[in-house]
Each structure stands twice: as structure tokens, then as C-alpha cells.
Amino acid sequence: MADILNAFTVDVEDYYHVSAFERVVDRASWGERESRVERNTERLLELLAAREVSGTFFVLGWVARRFPALVRRIAEAGHELASHSFWHRLVYELSPEEFRRDLRDSRSAIEDASGHAVTSYRAPSFSITQASLWALDILAEEGFDCDSSVFPIHHDRYGIPNADRFLHRRQTAAGPLWEFPATTARWGSVNLPIAGGGYFRLYPWTVTARMLRSFAATTGEPFVFYTHPWEIDAAQPRISGIDLRSRFRHYVNLARTESKLERLLRSFRFGRLRDVIQQRQAATTEPIGST
């Protein structure tokens, strides 16, 4: 278990970009709101540097256009840059043409800011579902070789419960694509989410640590962890007009996230998504397919 390299990932977006707020936060107002993405991302960079950990930063194209210096700072610190879309729109609400345009716009914004090629992608709110699997074909057509958009759980907004739970190489109509699903623990016939985000904030640290260690010990597979810059910012402006469920999901235990992240980084080995894939490739001479 100690030798397994896991992927540490960050979805670089601001507090007002989240999908749960899109009904009350007009995208036209984004530029007028107080932005906290720079300061919060810088703090995450400091936490990672303290543990000498490199990760993968899935950057929203809108953020890259507005804060190109932040994108350069992420790259200069040795982290992998990847796309988190441009407008944070749910994939299953887009047409294939809209998705392709958004994908190209996001990659262009990140590459223009950093000078680094972008070939990995994560959909907003893990919104590649059974209804939007066509997006994987487009990713491969557009030259992307890694995706981390599938969550093998039941959820009201996303999820493919019967999806492959582990890092695998998937064949699309346009060629192979590495898929690194959000990590889950098996409990009977149900998959429990343990990959990060709101679940990391909700569960006590001892529960998270025990489930991640059990995952590694029982499967021998790497896990992927994800967080957002706004999750370490308990003082962020509150969004009004949202329902109680969205309010709970977004604001629960924000004040505890940073200290829990520090414990996580001390407890497990982490690297970039690409590092984990290279470790997998080095460990096998056979093509890795979906199971």
C-alpha cells in the first residue's frame, strides 16, 4: 500500500462557479463578483509544496483567461495543467457541438496562459454520465488522452453506478483514452464516494483514512483525490437564494478542510495524474482495458 502512487487533483474554480449555484448566479455576473480563486489556489500550492507533492490542476478556462499569471504559477510549481471546461456547464446539458467548442476554448485559454499542452480533462460536476458518453469520443478526437469525469455512484446530478471503478484504458470511436474514475469504496452492492470534495468535508477524518487505506489494501489500485480552492475558504461570500440541500453540500465543514488536507498529504503518496498513469504503464506489458 505504501508504494502506491495516488493522484492528487484540484478543480480550479471560484466559489460562484459551482453547478449548484447556476440557477441563481448568472454567468454574466461572474466578472463582477469578488474573486477568491487566486488566494485560495496559492494556499493549496503552499500546502503541496510543504509536502513536496505535485498534482494535476483541472483549470476552468474562464479562470485561465482572467488570471493567466495564476495558471503560470501552477505550471512553474511543477504541477500538471488540465481542462475543467470553459464555462462550467454540465456536459449532459450540451450538444456535441457545444461541448467541442467549450473544450477547445478551455484548452486554448490554459495553453495560451501557460505555454504547456493540455491533454487531460475533467467535466464539471462529473457530468459525463450514461447520457453523455459521446463526450469521450470527442475528447479522443480532440487529442485528449486522459479523462477523470466518471463517478461510479448513484447521485441526483451525476454518476454511472456500474462503471469501472479503477484506472483503465478505454476504447472510444476515435481511439484509446485513459479513464480515472472518482474513487469509491464497495459496501455490499453499493459504491460509496470517497474521492474528495464534499464527501471529504462531510466524513470524519478517521472514516476517510480508513476507507482509503482499505481501498488500497483490498484492490492494490491507486485512488484519485479531488478538491477545490473554495473548499479551504470558510470566509467566502455566501450565495443567497439556493436550496437547503445545495447550501449544506457547499458549506459543510469548510473551516476544517485545510487541516484535513494536511493530514491527507502526510498519510498517502501523491503525484500527478500523468505520473500515476506512467506507473501503471511501467507495471504491465499488456494494454489495459475496461473491466
Would you give an account of this structure?
The model is unreliable at 286-291 (pLDDT under 50). The chain contains 10 helices and 11 strands. The strands form 3 sheets. Strands 1, 2, 3, 10 and 11 form a 5-stranded parallel beta sheet that branches. A 4-stranded mixed beta sheet has the order 4-5-7-6. Strands 8-9 form a two-stranded antiparallel ribbon. α3 crosses α4. With 291 residues, the protein is an alpha/beta fold. It is globular, with a radius of gyration of 18 Å.
Largest sheet: 5 strands, parallel
Tell me the β content: 5-15%
Please report the total strand number as a whole number.
Answer: 11
The oligomeric state of the chains shown is: single chain
**Helix coverage percent:** 25-40%
Question: What is the residue-averaged pLDDT?
Answer: 94
Query: Stretches where pLDDT falls below 50 for ≥5 residues?
Result: 286-291
The class by helix and strand makeup works out as: alpha/beta
SSE series: EHEHHEHEHEEEEEHHEHHEH
Span of the ends, CA to CA: 22 Å
Q: Give the count of helical stretches.
A: 10
